[in-house]
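User: tokens in, sequence out, please.
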């Protein structure tokens, strides 16, 4: 059994005029951390803003808003949402992100379907994130639709793997009720991310019942790769004020023993929450962080000694959240039911965690929540993982 100790929550970044969400972290060494996140345009979760970078020089305890760098900037008719950052062994930083185009008033157009995913794009920095290269479009053929969740993984050989999720045939905005179900896969690069090639399918349901999406990826101590995937079924039961409920929302796992070319059949970890982020700890245990979007809402971590056995007693909340305490930014009546406010404002949209190891072996997990003033903001939790 595991336990966590010394839990400390810290605010990383907030903006009174823009929602901020979906953070990804990298340890640059010497106590310096870098975080990239999405600054949405305005006080809506639009998924069509800019990608910013901020840094900490004291192992994540404080974050300097003045260190803010625009990595990927929104345009009049396009924007960015989820980005992930990776530090390679030579110190190069890679950031890749989703680009959306054909927007309606700065929003993804869910109704008319005019919006389109304009691929996955990558930029790199050789000066710790101060300046960034011109963006390059990532080749994910033969897939027609791909999106980002977790960071690139560097193998001991120097080759890179990029975990993505998407559709083989569907080009436009993903529809959870569409005929085709989403799949998780990895791209491979032999040259530090200059060129990418489709490499292996992590999870796919040929019966077209289960969506496998938003994968997390880590390399285990024995050299295997572990992929954790969010799952979604259609239709899905849901309680008032929540996004989904079981059997949707379970984390599934798949393993590769050939550096990502082939994968085992996905199996249910029985950990509920989404989407997952996963890292390998110094003692070879595995830590997965998930958003828990049912009552009581929170960000959870789940721990496994062998990457295959996940016990309920080894799941811990690191940040709790009550949407009833949030005053929405949109017009509402004081007597409007909490459930209505939560649904109209998507106040269940919390988490999207990202974890890294600190220099002293502790863990830093970043995520987003809503504050009481109704703004999405980014914070983190610092803690130690111990075994009984």
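Assistant: Sequence out:
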């Amino acid at each position: 059994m595991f336990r966590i100790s010394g839990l400390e929550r810290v605010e990383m970044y907030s903006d009174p005029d823009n929602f901020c969400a979906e953070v990804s972290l990298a340890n640059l060494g010497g106590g310096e951390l870098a975080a990239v996140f999405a600054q949405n345009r305005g006080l809506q979760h639009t998924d069509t803003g800019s990608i910013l970078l901020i840094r900490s020089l004291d192992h994540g305890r404080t974050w300097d808003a003045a260190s803010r760098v625009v990595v990927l900037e929104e345009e009049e008719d396009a924007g960015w949402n989820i980005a992930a950052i990776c530090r390679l062994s030579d110190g190069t930083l890679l950031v890749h992100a989703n680009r959306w185009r054909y927007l309606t008033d700065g929003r993804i157009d869910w109704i008319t379907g005019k919006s389109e995913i304009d691929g996955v794009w990558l930029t790199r920095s050789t000066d710790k994130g101060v300046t960034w290269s011109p963006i390059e479009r990532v080749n994910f053929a033969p897939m027609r639709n791909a999106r980002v969740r977790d960071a690139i993984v560097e193998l001991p050989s120097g080759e890179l793997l990029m975990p993505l999720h998407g559709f083989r045939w569907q080009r436009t905005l993903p529809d959870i009720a569409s005929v085709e179900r989403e799949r998780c896969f990895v791209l491979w690069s032999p040259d530090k991310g200059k060129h990418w090639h489709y490499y292996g399918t992590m999870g796919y349901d040929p019966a077209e019942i289960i969506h496998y999406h938003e994968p997390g990826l880590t390399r285990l101590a024995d050299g295997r790769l572990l992929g954790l995937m969010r799952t979604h079924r259609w239709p899905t039961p849901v309680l008032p004020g929540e996004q989904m409920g079981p059997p949707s929302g379970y984390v599934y796992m798949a393993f590769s023993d050939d550096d990502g070319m082939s994968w085992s059949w996905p199996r249910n970890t029985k950990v509920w929450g989404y989407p997952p982020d996963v890292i390998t700890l110094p003692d070879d245990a595995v830590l997965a962080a998930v958003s828990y979007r049912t009552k009581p809402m929170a960000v959870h971590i789940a721990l496994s000694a062998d990457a295959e056995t996940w016990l309920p007693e080894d799941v811990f909340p690191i940040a709790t959240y009550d949407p009833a305490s949030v005053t929405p930014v949109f017009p509402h009546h004081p007597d409007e039911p909490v459930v209505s406010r939560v649904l109209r404002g998507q106040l269940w949209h919390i988490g999207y965690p990202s974890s890294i190891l600190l220099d002293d072996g502790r863990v830093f997990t970043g995520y987003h929540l809503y504050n009481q003033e109704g703004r999405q903001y980014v914070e983190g939790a610092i803690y130690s993982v111990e075994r009984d």
